[in-house]
Amino acid sequence: MDYNFHWQPVFRRLPELLLAALDTLQVAVLAIILGIILGLLLAVLKMNATGKLKPLNWFARSWIELARNTPVLLQLFFFGFGLGALGLHLSPFMIVLAALTFNCAGYLAENFRGGLQSIPETQLRAARSLGMSAPKAYYYILFPQVLRNVWHPLTNQIVWAVLMSSLGMLVGYQELAGSAQYFASRTYRIFEYFAVVAVIYYILVKLILALSRLVAWRIFRGQGGV
Amino acid sequence: MEMFSALRPQDLWFLAEAAGKTLWISTLAISSGTLLGILFGWVLSVSGRLGSMTLGAVLDVFRSIPLIIQLVLFYNLFPIIGIPLDPFTAGTIVLSIYTLSLVSNVVRSGIESVSQDLRRASRSLGMSYWQDMRHIVWPVGLRAVFPAWVGVALSVLKDSALVSVLGYVELLRASQILITRTQEPLIIMAIVGLFYFFLSYPIARAASMVEKRWQQ
């Protein structure tokens, strides 16, 4: 083996890499927030197939199936080159955000649908007959139970979003993986840079899982946990 | 070599062939990853705390690092230790290990989902450990985690697109080659999207039919 590992240049770039990790977190968190809103909407639309909602129901189904049955990388290239061909040029950040949101919304919609369908309709009727208004019944009865049902899949999806955002390096977005690639291309220390970045991703994922467990412990206390 | 020429009928063949490669590398990774995943999942289920702190922790690393980083690392590691790998071999190995790490987790929870009472009952009927495994744990556990396994298989099928980063010409890489030549990204992406869809969707449908049949 006549290769000498050079870790020094990588460690000198550590502050920049850690800042790039914040970009990774930022794009992933934004995508998850947008994904939750759109995913809820898609789930409700998929469950209602009557009357005027019919075209929207079809739209929601296509979105969900496309997001779940094609590679994220293809979705990313679509928001990059695909829209570019239509004259719509998004910034690298927007490309990653749009693709991750599209993907997360599709996966979360199915999780939310499962979570919503697992609550018997009679519960809502019982709440209403006790004099609760519809928003109150949704907020106090439906929401806490659904939240508990989807907590695990939601946590997984956040982890996924962080991992998937690394594909940003293929469309020129300099988040964690993108920065590693940029620095590696200038120094030819590809292995060293990516090894350090792998460690940072690992720590990020562990932090998210720990945070999720902590929050779950706080809000689901006394309900038998998640 | 010509540049910027229109899409030709034989380009569809080129894409279909590349779809075959996507299917091939995914099949290799899913089957080897599943076989080893069953073995490792069983080890995890019987080795308790020690197993999950050693083997479990190692497998967890592959689930906590982006696949693209794993591919780049693995592909660049082997020339360093003096064994250069071609993109196909490197991609297959990384995808297999990734599948293995996901499947072992699924298998472990499958085995643990079978109730201890049921297993004691089978052992007290005179079944050996392996008979209990084969005739009780396998069928009962399989039903519990089959959907999760199908989910893993489908995600590996789609994630195989990342091997394109190493230069292996599978479906996604083929589409990029065509896009560069024809400058028609939208139509080519639509076709490639359909290819992926028709690889993935039938499997998802078949799996949910199997699940429904089991529930009856």
TrEMBL record, chain A:
Q: Where in the cell is it found?
A: Cell inner membrane; Cell membrane
What stretches pass through the bilayer? 20-45, 154-173, 193-211
- Domain named ABC transmembrane type-1 is located at 21-212
Topology term for the membrane: Multi-pass membrane protein
- Name a single GO cellular component: ATP-binding cassette (ABC) transporter complex
Which SUPFAM superfamilies does its entry note? Answer: MetI-like (SSF161098)
Q: Which UniProt keywords apply?
A: Amino-acid transport, Cell membrane, Membrane, Transmembrane, Transmembrane helix, Transport
Q: Which GO terms describe its molecular function?
A: L-cystine transmembrane transporter activity
Q: For this UniProt entry, what is the primary localization, expressed as one broad class?
A: membrane
Q: Which family does it belong to?
A: Belongs to the binding-protein-dependent transport system permease family. HisMQ subfamily.
What is the protein name stated in its UniProt record? Ribose ABC transport system, permease protein RbsC
